[in-house]
Design a protein that fits this description.
InterPro entries: HAD-like_hydrolase_sf (IPR050155), HAD-like_sf (IPR036412), HAD_sf (IPR023214), PhnX-like (IPR022468). This is Phosphonatase-like hydrolase. This protein folds into two domains: about 5-25 and about 95-225, HAD superfamily/HAD-like (Rossmann fold, 3-Layer(aba) Sandwich), CATH 3.40.50; about 30-90. A six-stranded parallel sheet has the order 3-2-1-4-5-6. Strand 4, helix 8 (about 180-190) and strand 5 (about 195-200) form a beta-alpha-beta unit. The protein is globular. The chain is built from ten helices and six strands; from the N terminus they run βαααααβαβαβαβαβα. With about 230 residues, the chain is an alpha/beta fold. Helix 1 packs across helix 4 and helix 3 (about 60-70) crosses helix 4 (about 70-90). The protein has helices at about 30-40, 50-55, 60-70, 70-90, 100-110, 120-130, 155-165, 180-190, 205-210, 225; strands at about 15-20, 115, 140, 175-180, 195-200, 215.
């Protein structure tokens, strides 16, 4: 479903898509990996999951810094999370959301440049791309480290995609799409012309709108039609 129409949709040149929950089915894998990481550090995962759910979309190391405080312990937790998530990926637990690949291909055929972003580390992002056979699907993939280390809700990955691809003449020609409030905030702060939330992931329509979504879609499969 589309909440509103916008003349800017006709002029979008760069589409910045989130991965888990937006183009890649999450299926609770992030929470499972967080729980495994917490247990490896002898912490109680149940006491942390509310915060983890609320901050879906944020870079994972930032979440662990909040939860564990001390940097060494936060880095240990992040490493344990990445290892646990990689085990789930290796176990065949990751898959594309219905229509996601087709949507990306259609956006490309419309003459738009597509970038995929994530809050995961590069090694995890690459493992997901390999599991899906998406290594060559888009022009650019970014993780927080590729954009100076700050993930969402900062606009850094969106602006890095803007600079690296040179696909758009200005930020108003960017569409940012994700399933969390943090995705929406990063798009708003980057000045994107379209900031679209999808209802296939962590946060509902009310939270997405409150964070600045210009559109709310049932899934990313609707996006090419909205922008066409």
């Amino acid at each position: 479903m589309t909440d509103m129409t916008d003349d800017m949709t006709d002029n979008i040149k760069l589409v910045v898509l989130d991965m888990a929950g937006t183009t890649v089915a999450d299926g609770g894998l992030v929470e499972q990996a967080f729980a495994a990481a917490a247990r490896r550090l002898d912490a109680d995962p149940d006491s942390m999951l509310d915060y983890v759910r609320a901050t879906m979309g944020e870079s994972k190391i930032s979440v662990f810094r909040h939860l564990f405080g001390e940097e060494t312990r936060a880095q240990q937790a992040n490493k344990a999370f990445e290892e646990a998530y990689a085990e789930l990926v290796d176990g065949g637990r990751v898959e594309a959301l219905p229509g996601a690949r087709e949507a990306i291909e259609e956006l490309t055929s419309q003459g738009r440049t597509v970038a995929l972003t994530t809050g995961f580390a590069r090694t995890t992002q690459d493992a997901i791309l390999a599991a899906l056979g998406w290594q060559d699907l888009v022009e650019l993939t970014l993780c927080p480290a590729d954009a100076g280390g700050r993930g969402r809700p900062y606009p850094d990955m969106v602006l890095t995609a803007f600079l690296r691809t040179a696909a758009a003449d200005g930020v108003q020609q960017i569409a940012v799409v994700g399933d969390t409030s943090y995705d929406m905030l990063s798009g708003v702060r980057a000045g994107a012309g379209v900031v679209a939330g999808v209802l296939t992931g962590a946060h509902g329509a009310e939270a997405l709108r409150a964070a600045g979504a210009t559109h709310v879609l049932d899934s990313v499969a609707e996006l090419p039609g909205v922008l066409a």
